[in-house]
Every structure is written in C-alpha cells, then in structure tokens.
Amino acid sequence: MALSRRKKTKCWIWKALDRTTGRIVAWVVGRRDATTFRRLYAQVKGDKRTYFTDDWPVYRAVLPEARHVIGRMGTQTVERDNANTRHYSARMARRTKVVSKSPTMVDLSIKLGVLFADPAVYAQWQAVFSAVFA
C-alpha cells in the first residue's frame, strides 16, 4: 500500500497475513524494492508455508518458486486488510494533513492496529478506559 503519490521517496507497507485467521503476522515499512521485501520474508520464512502474491517481479526474485502462487485469488485477505487500514487510519489516506507519514509513525500505527485487533487486548483496554469515565 503506497502512502504518497507526490513525494520522491514513497513509503510502502509490506504485510504478511495468515489467510486462515486474516491477521497480520509481520510487516515492514520502506520502499517498494527487493531489499525491503527481503526484510519481510526474513520474518515469515518457513519450510511448509505457501506464499500467495500478485505478479510484482520482486516476489519472483525472492520467494522460492515451489511455494509461490501468483494470482489475485490468493490476495483477497491482504487487499481487504489494506482497505480496512486506509478506512480506520487517516494516516493512510492519500491526501491528509491529519498526521505524520514518517516511516516510524506509520510503523507504530500498524503496531497499534495489530495490537487492538486482538479481542483480549481490546477488552482489557476497554475496561481501563471505561473505568475512567464511570
């Protein structure tokens, strides 16, 4: 997902999702190149995993061919997550004056989103905030 169309150095979020749960298992923030993707792949690399991607050339260069499936049918989960990320965070909107789009702040925003996507963590913090206003 690209965060800016006008700047020279665009900030991209690379995500790896578990297709069965729909949860983000790893992400990196950086450029849309093989170096950044290798950082993500190092976090999720496994012997029995299958990787579903679109036809971006970087994927073919890094992923093992035997466990790499190219096609839009396998990428619905990550596309849905990208849409939800843009919807719930003004930082991800194309043109916003709301917040900083620095890679550090983007990374922290994704970290908070992943944290609060866990129902147990959300319930715990909901109880804390509710107690403040009780």
Question: What key phrases describe this protein's structure?
Answer:
134 residues; alpha+beta; two-stranded antiparallel sheet; two-stranded parallel sheet; 5 helices; 4 strands; 45% helix; 14% strand
Written overview of the protein:
It is a single chain. The protein is α+β, with helices and mostly antiparallel strands and 134 residues long. The chain contains five helices and four strands, in the order E-E-H-E-H-E-H-H-H. The chain has a two-stranded antiparallel sheet. A two-stranded parallel sheet has the order 3-4. Strand 3 (51-53), helix 2 (57-62) and strand 4 form a beta-alpha-beta unit. It starts with 11 loop residues before the first strand and ends with a helix. The model has no long low-confidence stretch (mean pLDDT 82).
Quick structural summary:
This protein has 134 residues and is α+β, with helices and mostly antiparallel strands. It has helices spanning 34-44, 57-62, 76-88, 103-117, 119-133, and strands at 12-17, 24-30, 51-53, 68-70. Helix 2 (57-62) links the parallel strand 3 and strand 4.
Strand and helix map with partners:
Layout: E1 12-17, E2 24-30, H1 34-44, E3 51-53, H2 57-62, E4 68-70, H3 76-88, H4 103-117, H5 119-133
